[in-house]
Amino acid sequence: MAAKQRERKPNFTSSENNLISSRAIEMLDTIRGRHSYDLSNTMKQDFWKCLTEEVNALGVACRSEDEVRNRWQNMSRSAKEKFTNHRLVRQKTGGGPPPAALSVAEEQIVDAMQDTAAYIGVPGGQESAVTQLDEHLSHTQNM
Length: 143
Prior knowledge:
Order of helices and strands: HHHHHHH
Radius of gyration: 21 Å
Distance between the termini: 70 Å
Oligomer: single chain
Strand content: under 5%
């Protein structure tokens, strides 16, 4: 028996990506918020259902809610990765190719989320475990 190959849907277009990023950024508090009296899981599900309908209205392909949600997660992950890469390249002394440019959707995501702890770290936080390990190693070597 020959296995039936699954038909692939077309890749997300830039118009779909821009729609997903702009609508998700508008509702960022709903997407990333914790459950409370003001925010329920039903509200989050309703948002993804509405966004999926808007994406499908563009007429590129019939997307599921999971596909749209995964696309948002992948886009935000990619934007964070490129943002971090840009920051690291700026600290170098020169040479080498320039970093990859951000797309319009990724720029929107970075602009909306660059003040969060995921991008800038925890204010006043330290990496004390690393320094304590270094101090312990130097102390044990001196004995």
